[in-house]
Amino acid sequence: MDHHSKAKELLQQRDELDGKIKELMLVLETNNSTMDSPLLDAEGYPLNTIDVYAVRHARHDLICLRNDRAALTEKIVVEMENENKEVSGQTATSEEKPVHRTSNEPFVKISSVVELSPADIGGFRKDDLIIQYGNLHHGNFNDMQEVAQITKQSEDKIIRVTVIRENRPVRLEICPKKWSGPGLLGCNIVPISGANV
After folding, report:
1. Taking phi first (over 0 means left), then psi (-120 to 50 degrees means alpha), and beta for anything else, what does residue 80 get?
2. Which of the listed residues 86, 119, 135 is the one where a domain comes to its end?
3. pLDDT-based confidence at 79, cuts 50/70/90?
């Protein structure tokens, strides 16, 4: 199987995961619950206003599916990059031009992520250090307005992001979109101390 076909197959698998994630998110929303909201009352009894069993299972499955999605995304990026190497000047599934970073030095970081937001579903985690955000990197970053502009221009589109997490690079695909919370991402991105802001 060639790289394009493999990437397409992986994308289909990820779409299926996204569908399951949405179903599980609906279970939590229906029960007015989040990933860490209480399931017991003050006396230690299960709340009778929610389906405790369903919420517990939804939380567990969401954690598993998020991990599976992150692993799939990394495989997809690898297949796309391999295809790009074979087909000069052609991009697999993205209109983004290749970005050549001058360094792997982070320039902004994630200070908080709202549960079940586009940022959360896309794989952002608190304290992720961003070394590439679309075509932005440490070498061409000037101010936070650039991050906001890329986010706004990429509504309902994929932004390729590379972060440093636990001292290793992690590639993500973030899709800014309108959701039940504020903004298009549901996370707080702040400049790193010493960055050119």
Report:
1. alpha
2. 86
3. confident
> pLDDT digit string (tens) for 146-162?
999 999 999 989 999 99
Q: What are phi and psi of 20, to 5 degrees?
A: -65, -40
In a domain, 94, yes or no: no
DSSP one-letter string for 46-105: BPTTS-HHHHHHHHHHHHHHHHHHHHHHHHHHHHHHHHHHHSTT--SS--PPP---S---
**Residue 135: both structure tokens together:** 């075509």
Q: Mean pLDDT across the stretch 6-11? A: 82
Residue whose structure tokens are 């599916």: 65
pLDDT of 100: 55
Last residue of a domain, one of 56, 86, 116: 86
At 5, the amino acid letter reads: S
Judge contact between 25 and 63, C-beta under 8 A.
no
Q: How many whole angstroms separate alpha carbon 138 and alpha carbon 148?
A: 16
Give residue-wise pLDDT tens across range 38-59.
998 888 889 999 999 999 999 9
Residue 40 — φ and ψ, nearest 5°?
Answer: -115, 155
Query: What are the Cα distances from residue 24, in Å, to 19, 55, 65, 172?
Result: 9, 9, 10, 22
Q: Is the pTM of this model over 0.90?
A: no
Do 66 and 140 share a structural domain? Answer: no
